[in-house]
């Protein structure tokens, strides 16, 4: 009834706006007949006259046509209202979810961080012979009983994930030992997982390939190396990682390197650390500052000529974890053109053991308020967290998060599209433009070293 009354009010407003010289001969019979029993008295009075009244003179066709157009315009405006509000306003949760599902068919959802490959190493020792990601892992041991398992192809499809950065994670215990080898093995297993599931996944290395894979209905799969210690303090290894498909490097993990300090420790980038950032700009690899210390992040933002990301972090103002990003750095990210991708780990969302979907929305809104809607994204960290928020239990739940944002009239569909993935696509494109500019300028590969390390040998000829 409220919907119908809204239409009638719109009809009355349009009629009231007709200029003085253009009058209607009494009430609009066509409108009253169309409105039927729900028409207000002012519109239905002429339709209830007695049979002995004089016949109403025939009205000119233009007046009848105009009355019909008034009704049609009002109906169209009323029906379009929920969409005009970005799904908010009068839209039901089901309508908002329908809007999101339609949007994600046209525009990719890009998640910045997933640790599935490390679980494959833990559970299967990277042996994929019996590993069927297209099956529901939530019903297969040991995945079904693991609190760290949230990802498989059926759930990725339900979540309408359009692109995923798969993490080639290297634990800090491998630093100065076999970190380079572990990184290579993790990149290898990611590529083999993709090759075993080409009906659903496609390995991509740039923004254009990402968009094309999404158009084909496949999940664009990118590689991010997590932990700068995986380089073994070598720019040559960095270049090799890029050639193997790595498109971001998380400059630290929970441990320092010789050239960068991790979150919670003092100090920033060394001269070699600056050379790493410069070489990543030259190659076209994204600098990822999740896990980096504040001074390291400031140095990298100052040094980088391309946008950077925090691939799986949150807002420090809401949870004062060293992993999260303080407002000062959020403003610098905005100036740099980068993106903070919101992590779903409860300990980073609420600084406690539990969190909800609404708590994640609060982080998204805070980053938007400080940095702007162009600088916020999603980096859940699934398969690397054991306490996802209520309502975001696994990778199938992304549409519900985005539909919740549409409740807020400040979030338009275009804003949600940027958050979901287009901000990250823009960063990729910008990083690639910087790479291409440096190639045209014939910038040579870096040759800096981190200095002689304990145990290094210098070989020569006799």
From TrEMBL:
Pfam families: Peptidase_M19. It catalyses: an L-aminoacyl-L-amino acid + H2O = 2 an L-alpha-amino acid. Coiled coil: none annotated. It is found in: Membrane. GO terms for biological process: proteolysis. GO terms for cellular component: side of membrane. GO terms for molecular function: metal ion binding; metallodipeptidase activity. Its EC number is 3.4.13.19. Keywords: Dipeptidase, Disulfide bond, Glycoprotein, GPI-anchor, Hydrolase, Lipoprotein, Membrane, Metal-binding, Metalloprotease, Protease, Transmembrane, Transmembrane helix, Zinc. Its cofactor is Zn(2+). The chain crosses the membrane at residues 64-85. It is a lipid-anchor; GPI-anchor. Homodimer; disulfide-linked. Belongs to the metallo-dependent hydrolases superfamily. Peptidase M19 family. This is Dipeptidase. It comes from Arctia plantaginis.
């Amino acid at each position: 009834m409220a919907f119908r009354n809204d239409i009638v009010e719109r009809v009355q407003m349009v009629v009231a706006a007709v200029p003085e010289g253009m009058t209607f001969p009494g009430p609009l019979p066509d409108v009253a007949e169309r409105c039927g029993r729900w028409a207000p008295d002012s519109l239905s009075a002429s339709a209830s006259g007695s049979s002995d009244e004089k016949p109403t003179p025939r009205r000119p066709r233009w007046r009848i046509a105009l009355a019909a157009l008034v009704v049609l315009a009002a109906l169209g405006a009323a029906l379009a209202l929920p969409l005009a509000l970005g799904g908010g306003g009068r839209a039901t949760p089901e309508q908002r979810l329908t809007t999101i599902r339609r949007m994600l068919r046209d525009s990719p959802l890009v998640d910045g961080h997933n640790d599935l490959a490390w679980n494959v190493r833990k559970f299967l020792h990277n042996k994929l012979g019996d590993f069927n990601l297209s099956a529901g892992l939530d019903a297969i041991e040991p995945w079904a009983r693991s609190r760290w398992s949230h990802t498989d192809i059926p759930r990725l499809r339900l979540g309408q994930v359009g692109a995923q950065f798969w993490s080639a994670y290297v634990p800090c215990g491998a630093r100065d030992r076999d970190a380079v080898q572990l990184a290579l093995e993790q990149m290898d297993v990611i590529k083999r997982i993709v090759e075993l599931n080409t009906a659903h996944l496609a390995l991509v290395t740039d923004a254009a390939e990402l968009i094309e894979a999404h158009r084909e209905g496949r999940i664009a799969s990118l590689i991010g190396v997590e932990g700068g210690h995986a380089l073994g303090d070598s720019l040559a290894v960095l270049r090799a990682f890029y050639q193997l498909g790595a498109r971001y490097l998380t400059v630290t993990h929970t441990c320092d390197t010789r050239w960068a300090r991790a979150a919670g420790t003092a100090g920033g980038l060394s001269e070699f650390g600056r050379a790493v950032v410069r070489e990543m700009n030259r190659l076209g690899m994204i600098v990822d500052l999740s896990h980096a210390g504040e001074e390291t992040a400031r140095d990298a933002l100052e040094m980088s000529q391309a946008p950077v990301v925090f691939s799986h972090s949150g807002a420090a103002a809401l949870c004062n974890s060293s992993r999260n990003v303080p407002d000062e750095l959020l403003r610098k990210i905005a100036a740099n053109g980068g993106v903070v991708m919101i992590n779903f780990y409860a300990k980073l969302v609420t600084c406690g053991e539990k969190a909800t979907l609404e708590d994640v929305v609060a982080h998204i809104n805070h980053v938007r308020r400080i940095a702007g809607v162009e600088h916020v994204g999603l980096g859940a960290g699934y398969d690397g967290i054991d306490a996802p928020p209520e309502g975001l239990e696994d990778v199938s739940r992304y549409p519900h998060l985005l539909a919740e944002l549409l409740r807020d009239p400040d979030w338009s569909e275009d804003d949600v599209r940027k958050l979901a993935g287009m901000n990250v696509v823009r960063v990729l494109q910008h990083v690639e433009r910087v790479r291409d500019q440096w190639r045209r300028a014939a910038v040579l590969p870096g040759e800096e070293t981190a200095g002689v390390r304990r145990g290094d040998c210098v070989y020569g000829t006799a």
